[in-house]
Design brief:
four-stranded antiparallel beta sheet, disordered N terminus, eight-stranded mixed beta sheet, single chain, about 15% strand, alpha/beta
């Protein structure tokens, strides 16, 4: 109180409540809950045991689901790291943030979470994989401890940097923990714990020995990812911040197997979203509300007490997490431009909870992705699929379907979640396809999406 009286003597007429209000504002900032977003890299959501996976037990990720909410209809608008991470951080679809091709720099005149959250009192840090530029847009405090290079063959980690970041001062924090698991090459974890012969492969997969061995290595990295999640939870518990922190787990896009990453199929777009915050989120809850990565930033702003941002694409779904709303949006959208990951092959998609429409804008050419479909590597999944196709009708159908795609694909997700049966030529769905195509075209126009003209060298 002496300092307050001294201040009033120095500045006559200034009420004592002035300094008290400043102190209250500082206390409000200190009381804000924290945010930790843990993000995987190329995760097949269906392999998590809390999502029904049968191959490995993801104990720590399951814990988040048991103590919070699991969303079944979270979708990535682009199934490549640079575009979808830019969408996560900016709340903008790829055509608007500029990273609408992989490894393409975002526009420099936009804002990200590193601008919006500091404005409402948060320190914003990131550890692990980066993959977004320029620095002026994505101005994270980079925290040491997790591997940055997603193609590293090793992935030792430490949570010491996270602990220091948490305990540095009393301001609330937002921390993104960006794992490189289970991104290829699948060289981390212990595959010896997994019996390749007992793996349950997805129905869109050619079953052969090479694929099973690769899948075993992939699953070992899923387990390694789960261990990292456990380590992050441990440091939150150690620092007594766990229950005052909104912890979100994200799966990013799907795996580097055919029909996953680099496509607009559900295997690539459907992404894990689990949130834990015991003060407001009920344990062991689920939601089928449609959400996209663009909705996550406004949800974080809303959670932190900020005002809605009008000029971004996403909308807060905080009330879905709190169990106050059952639904969020009518449509989710997808965009894929294949350059520089292969030859030009632009794809767009739209879906609701029941139906999925995919438009392949250049159906007269074969799809080609340079990493996955490199046949010089005879031990790759794709090379083994082509070899199996010489004697297997199923393998031949899958490989041809992956390379040669019609202009229009339409799927009933309720009865065909793996999108194995294209209903585009079924007259029963003509009206529905027309409605969804019109909505997709409206979205593209609103976004300034030029379609084929966007999938060019940059």
């Amino acid at each position: 109180m002496k300092s307050i009286k001294f201040l009033s003597l120095l500045i006559p007429g200034v009420p004592l409540t002035f300094s008290c209000e400043v102190t209250k504002a500082e206390n409000d900032i200190q009381k804000k809950p924290n945010i930790v977003v843990i993000m995987a890299d190329d995760l097949a959501t269906n392999e998590l045991s809390c999502y029904g996976g049968k191959n490995v037990k993801t104990t720590n990720i399951d814990r988040l689901a048991n103590e919070g909410i699991l969303l079944g209809n979270n979708y990535a608008s682009a199934t490549m790291s640079v575009p979808i991470r830019a969408s996560l951080y900016t709340g903008l679809y790829p055509a608007r943030h500029g990273s609408f091709q992989n490894h393409k720099t975002s526009y420099s005149n936009i804002k990200s979470v590193t601008h919006y959250l500091p404005d409402i009192g948060y320190r914003v840090g990131r550890t692990g994989k980066q993959h977004t530029t320029p620095k002026s847009v994505y101005d994270f405090e980079e925290i040491p401890g997790f591997e940055v290079n997603c193609v590293s063959s090793t992935a030792n980690y430490s949570t010491d940097g996270i602990e220091e970041f948490i305990e540095r001062d009393n301001k609330p924090f937002c921390l993104f923990v960006c794992s490189i698991h289970p991104h290829a090459p699948w060289t981390w974890g212990n595959p010896e714990e997994i019996d390749a012969d007992k793996i349950v492969l997805p129905p869109n997969t050619v079953d052969n020995a090479i694929t099973r061995n690769l899948f075993r290595n992939y699953l070992a990295e899923v387990k390694a990812l789960d261990e990292e999640v456990g380590a992050v939870l441990q440091v939150l518990e150690k620092t007594n911040t766990l229950d005052n922190t909104l912890v979100i787990f994200l799966g990013e896009q799907g795996p580097q197997f055919p029909f996953g990453k680099w496509t607009c199929y559900r295997y690539g777009q459907n992404s894990a979203f689990i949130a834990r915050y015991p003060h407001k989120i009920k344990s062991k809850t689920t939601s089928d509300a449609l959400v996209q990565y663009e909705d996550i930033l406004p949800t974080l702003i809303d959670f932190g007490g900020g005002e809605a941002v009008d000029d971004i694409d996403g909308r807060s779904f905080l009330k879905v997490l709190y169990g106050e709303h059952d639904d969020h949006r009518n449509w989710t959208y997808g965009i894929h431009n294949n350059i520089p990951e292969g030859t030009a092959y632009p794809i767009r998609s739209i879906q609701d909870k029941r139906y999925k429409l995919i438009i392949n804008l250049t159906p007269d050419v074969d799809y080609f992705e340079k990493h996955l479909m490199n046949v010089k590597n005879k031990r790759s999944a794709w090379a083994s699929w082509l070899e199996s196709a010489k004697t297997s009708v199923v393998a031949k159908e899958l490989t041809e379907r992956y390379m040669k795609r019609p202009a229009v694909e339409f799927y009933d997700l309720k009865n065909d979640s793996w999108e194995m049966n294209n209903l585009a030529d079924n007259k029963e769905y003509a009206s529905r396809i027309s409605v969804m195509k019109s909505e997709l075209e409206k979205w593209m126009a609103q976004q300034g999406d030029k379609g084929v003209a966007m999938d060019i060298e940059f």
